[in-house]
Amino acid sequence: MATKSFVDVDADSHFPLQNLPYGVFRIPNCAAEPRPGVAIGGLVLDLSVVASHGLFDGPILSNSDCFQQTSLNKFVGMGRPAWKEARATIQKLLSCDEPTLRDNSSLREKALLPMDSVEMVLPIVIGDYTDFYSSFYHAKNCGLMFRPDNPIPPNWFQLPIAYHGRASSVVISGSDIIRPKGQSHPVGKSPPHFGPTQKLDFELEMAAVVGPGNEPGKPMDVNEAENHIFGLVLMNDWSARDIQFWECMPLGPFLGKNFGTTISPWIVTLEALEEFACDAPNQDPRPLPYLTEKKSKNYDISLEVAIKPAGEEQSSVVTRSNLKHLYWTFSQQLAHHTINGCNLRPGDLLGTGTISGPVPESLGCLLELTLNGQKPISLNNNSTRKFLEDGDEVVFTGFGKGNGYKIGFGTCSGKVVPALP
């Protein structure tokens, strides 16, 4: 594999030749439809141009229109052989010793666009979205706050807990999040309070983008599930804690969670992340056979959350965590999701749940960081936060650090705007 591109890639860039994440973009004020692209340094490689010039000449992609689509669903559904063929072609075209793009200024001008000149849109059409609860530290911390005598119920160690979310409210990074309204817990014998949430929170998550699905009634084998994962994105599953707490007994999250979920625009493939694979935590008790992996792995991906208040130029990092802290792996999540015969489809999104670490500086949401508002955190501008305020911009970043380069996800950001009248 080539390790250097003819494109000038800054050492701090998340998008070197070793990464090549996929997204979908459009040109502002242009009638052309959105199309797939790959990030390289500060540029976007337009895959529709590459395809229309016949440069995908392998046996799987040579006659495919997957890169002429307005989403990546067709491509991600083609499976790993197509993904590997595309990656090899793109790496070759962008490598420093390949003249096809490097020496053709006209083609290069059409195919390589400045990233700041395009608008990123959702890279996939998300048919279904599921949110898991796979971090031991997050489950333990929340349990200690609300169920101190039994912080983690026994079933949590037997299966990846999850609930179905709302795919229609998944938005691309940079989208505003309107403060939601709803009911919250009554005081004394008063009726429930109704109004804008007073406990708006972020949740530091990542999510898997499903590639080829499975037929109804045919579960995925846990040791083959990785072949059904195209890649990962950063995800902020915004939460209205006061609304959530009032509604979640006995059934679970609803209005406190379904108003907005933000994902990063670039999908980083598992092949690009393979060098950051690491052992998953030991699971005790041993999972049931359908969840027992021959090799149980996570990924060593550093994660960070910053808050930038309205009118401020400087943001404050409020937590640093790592994807490797997940207790239940992505493969186990897919295997459990399908064990009852549920069919997944290309473009489905599976969130990890909040990713918290073992130390106070690695907690993945304000609920944990502030002990449900009892212990405010300080920001750089001398203000404090119990929960998010209107005008706050929340920015997630994530990357793995290689030998002289980073493989990252860019950013996943959203700004809180006031509730509608």
TrEMBL record:
Task: Write down what this protein is called.
Answer: Fumarylacetoacetase
Its organism's taxonomic lineage begins at:
Eukaryota, Viridiplantae, Streptophyta, Embryophyta, Tracheophyta
The UniProt annotation places Mg(2+) binding at 237, 257, 261
Q: What does this protein do?
A: Converts fumarylacetoacetate to acetoacetate and fumarate. Involved in tyrosine catabolic pathway. Catalyzes the final step in the tyrosine degradation pathway.
Species of the source: Stephania japonica
Pathway field of the UniProt record reads: Amino-acid degradation; L-phenylalanine degradation; acetoacetate and fumarate from L-phenylalanine: step 6/6
Keyword Calcium carried by entry: yes
Give an example GO biological process: L-tyrosine catabolic process
At the top level, the lineage of the source is Eukaryota
Q: What broad class of enzyme is this?
A: hydrolase
Q: Where does Ca(2+) bind?
A: 131, 203, 205, 237
Q: Which residues form the Fumarylacetoacetase N-terminal domain?
A: 18-123
Q: Which cofactor does it need?
A: Mg(2+); Ca(2+)
> Cross-referenced Gene3D superfamilies, in alphabetical order?
Fumarylacetoacetase, N-terminal domain, Fumarylacetoacetase-like, C-terminal domain
Residue ranges of domain Fumarylacetoacetase-like C-terminal in the record? 131-416
Instruction: Give the family, as the similarity comment puts it.
Output: Belongs to the FAH family.
| Enzyme Commission identifier(s) | 3.7.1.2
Keyword field: Calcium, Hydrolase, Magnesium, Metal-binding, Phenylalanine catabolism, Tyrosine catabolism
Catalyzed reaction equations: 4-fumarylacetoacetate + H2O = acetoacetate + fumarate + H(+)
